[in-house]
């Protein structure tokens, strides 16, 4: 049963994150290089922003002129000019706002598309060990939810922050010009407004981060369980799992409520403080007008500027919360991007010889999986598979057969000994060049939600349609493919045609034939096929093995009998090596395994 959401977190992890989250909006710097790639759009947005702010700031000036001079009969022509001017300002405001909105939204979408692509590129290179430690659901949440949050920040919040900043400064400057005395009064009030809001903002950010963590945990729980829906239903665990999910969702609800409460309090305080300050200043100014110190127009102009400045401030507090959420998301993405790909090509890779054709050598290899450091999966294993040789690997379940494949493909690095492919140690070779030399046909063929042709072409994107068809033919797959509703263009997998076990295997074989690598790693399927399907798969396998060095984890007697050599693995050690006849004669582990099968049914599992 999978661990309930949130339980797999190390204690102290949240506390450590909280400590970090007390920092500021710095994580958003992650976005800087992405934004700088589109300088022209960013500059256009900035210009539009300044123009629209300037247009807004002209309005109070016009109001003052109107009040102080406009309302007398002899000034009628003047008032017409003012209103015409105001229309023009309105048009400018509309156009510049539209340009700003377009540019900033474009930037947000573009930047986040680039971030997503980069994060995925990075994820695709991370090692098998990383995926053993991390829930795929959590990664999906980062790729989707976190990037969406950042998009909102980049496309709306940043633009609002900039607009408000420009307007706020502009309004302050114009306030000073309008009335120095009233401005000084406001300047005294501003810190009283800002300081508590900034301090409270930090708390909001901490709660945002917790809320996001809870969302990630619950979505990771859901995706893990839904991907194992058949197991869940077969064990009738639906209610249990659903209850656990409901609990996880409730925790994320509670966290969201805590965050929202704090944001609500922050918004209320901001509005009250700002509104109170304006009323106070207005009250003071009203006395000045009555005493004739300033005109009514000046007070109106001043108050409008103050209202603009105040509106900017109160929006700031809103946006600041959003920016803090985005900063939390950016921080999580940065953490993900900072995880190194443990398995990498060396800086100066050694080239494979052109002529050598698929030799695999294990020299005293010992290996433990990172998650089970005290349990050796392989111990002191040595063997050579020469070019063109067919080597069967047999042994009880859990003896280390698949581990041999994992090491040849360099999904992990062995702690001791050397693994060489065509006499080049695997960790000295370029990773792509190494894996290009190897075809893997595993027990469970993964079929992607793509067309038949794309599924076969998976490892060889440059192959022509003719090559794909030829490979399918060689793998005895073309007959059933041509009978599919749209032949080679039929959509397979999720929401497409579902293939039978034997058909999937033949697709996998076609993939391997198309890849045409000198080394074939074949994990024979244990699931029994019907006789006809079995025969087709066997013939297809014979074809793909021809002319290649083949290492096959064998489950069928026929496979081991036809092998040039058999390696018997037991408890991570190579305990016997030889042909079928030799090993039967030796009367060891192999003889026992083979005996079991011969006594039992003919197609029993030899290796498990
Ligand atoms: N990713 C992993 N992390 C930790 N331990 C692992 C991992 N994969 C396999 N093991 C352990 O390493 C040992 C060898 O596993 P391996 O998969 O190579 O066995 P196998 O012979 O292929 O078994 P089977 O025939 O059942 O597939 C087993 O004890 C297994 O529990």
TrEMBL record:
Major subcellular site: membrane
CDD domains assigned to the protein according to its UniProt record, in alphabetical order: ABC_6TM_bac_exporter_ABCB8_10_like
Organism expressing this protein natively: Rhodomicrobium udaipurense
SMART domains per the UniProt record, alphabetical: AAA (SM00382)
Topology in membrane: Multi-pass membrane protein
Subcellular location: Cell membrane
NCBIfam families: MsbA_rel
Keyword field contains NADP: no
One cellular component (GO) term of this entry: plasma membrane
ABC transmembrane type-1 domain location: 43-325
Membrane-crossing segments per the record: 40-61, 81-103, 161-178, 184-201, 264-286, 292-313
Keyword entries, A-Z: ATP-binding, Membrane, Nucleotide-binding, Transmembrane, Transmembrane helix
GO molecular function, one term: ATP binding
Example GO BP: oligopeptide export from mitochondrion
Domain of life the protein comes from: Bacteria
Protein name: ATP-binding cassette domain-containing protein
Classification via Pfam families: ABC_membrane, ABC_tran
Entry similarity comment: Belongs to the ABC transporter superfamily.
InterPro entries: AAA+_ATPase (IPR003593), ABC1_TM_dom (IPR011527), ABC1_TM_sf (IPR036640), ABC_MsbA_ATP-bd (IPR011918), ABC_transporter-like_ATP-bd (IPR003439), ABC_transporter-like_CS (IPR017871), P-loop_NTPase (IPR027417), Type_1_exporter (IPR039421)
Chain's role: Part of an ABC transporter complex. Transmembrane domains (TMD) form a pore in the inner membrane and the ATP-binding domain (NBD) is responsible for energy generation.
Domain ABC transporter stretches: 360-596
């Amino acid at each position: 049963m999978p661990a309930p959401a949130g339980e797999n977190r190390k204690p102290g992890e949240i506390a450590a994150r909280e400590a970090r989250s007390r920092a500021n909006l710095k994580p958003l710097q992650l976005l800087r290089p992405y934004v700088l790639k589109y300088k022209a759009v960013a500059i256009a947005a900035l210009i539009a922003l300044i123009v629209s702010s300037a247009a807004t700031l002209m309005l109070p000036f016009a109001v003052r002129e109107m009040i102080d001079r406009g309302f007398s009969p002899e000034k009628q022509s003047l008032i017409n000019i003012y209103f015409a001017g105001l229309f023009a300002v309105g048009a400018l405001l509309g156009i510049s706002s539209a340009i700003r909105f377009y540019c900033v939204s474009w930037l947000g979408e573009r930047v986040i598309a680039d971030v997503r692509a980069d994060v995925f590129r990075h994820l695709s290179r991370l090692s098998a060990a990383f995926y053993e430690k991390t829930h795929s659901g959590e990664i999906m949440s980062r790729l989707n939810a976190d990037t969406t949050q950042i998009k909102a920040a980049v496309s709306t919040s940043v633009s609002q922050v900039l607009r408000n900043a420009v307007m706020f400064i502009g309004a302050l400057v114009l306030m000073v010009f309008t009335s120095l005395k009233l401005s000084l009064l406001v300047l005294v009030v501003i810190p009283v407004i800002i300081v508590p809001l900034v301090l409270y903002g930090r708390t909001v950010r901490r709660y945002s981060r917790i809320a996001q963590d809870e969302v990630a945990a619950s979505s990771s729980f859901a995706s893990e369980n839904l991907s194992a829906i058949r197991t869940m239903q077969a064990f009738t665990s639906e209610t249990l799992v659903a209850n656990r999910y409901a609990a996880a969702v409730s925790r994320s609800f509670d966290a969201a409520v805590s965050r929202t409460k704090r944001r609500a309090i922050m918004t209320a305080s901001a509005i009250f403080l700002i509104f109170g300050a304006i009323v106070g200043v207005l009250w003071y100014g009203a006395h000045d007008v009555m005493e004739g110190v300033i005109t009514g127009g000046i007070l109106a102009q001043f108050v409008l500027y103050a209202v603009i400045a105040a509106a900017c401030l109160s929006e700031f507090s809103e946006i600041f919360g959003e920016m803090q959420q985005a900063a939390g998301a950016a921080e999580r993405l940065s953490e993900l991007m900072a995880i190194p790909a443990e398995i990498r090509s060396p800086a100066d890779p050694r080239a494979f010889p052109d002529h050598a054709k698929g030799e695999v050598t294990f020299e005293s290899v010992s290996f433990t999986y990172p998650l089970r450091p005290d349990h050796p999966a392989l111990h002191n294993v040595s063997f050579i598979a020469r070019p063109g040789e067919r080597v069967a690997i047999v042994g009880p379940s859990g003896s280390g057969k698949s581990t041999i494949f994992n090491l040849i493909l360099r999904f992990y690095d062995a702690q001791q000994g050397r693994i060489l492919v065509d006499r080049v140690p695997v960790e000295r070779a370029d990773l792509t060049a190494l894996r290009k030399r190897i075809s893997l046909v595993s027990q469970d063929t993964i079929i992607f939600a793509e067309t038949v042709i794309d599924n076969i072409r998976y490892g060889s994107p440059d192959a022509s349609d003719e090559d794909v068809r030829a490979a399918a033919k060689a793998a005895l797959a073309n007959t059933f493919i041509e009978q599919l509703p749209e032949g080679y263009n039929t959509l397979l997998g999720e929401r497409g045609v579902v293939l039978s076990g034997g058909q999937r295997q033949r697709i996998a074989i076609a993939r391997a034939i198309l890849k045409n690598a000198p080394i074939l790693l074949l994990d024979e399927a244990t699931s029994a096929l019907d006789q006809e399907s079995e025969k087709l798969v066997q013939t297809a396998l014979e074809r793909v093995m021809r002319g290649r060095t083949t290492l096959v984890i064998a489950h069928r007697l026929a496979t081991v009998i036809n092998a040039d050599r058999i390696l018997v693995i037991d408890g991570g050690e190579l305990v016997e090596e030889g042909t079928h006849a030799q090993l039967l004669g030796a009367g060891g582990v192999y003889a026992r395994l083979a005996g079991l099968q011969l006594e039992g049914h003919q197609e029993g599992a030899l290796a498990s």
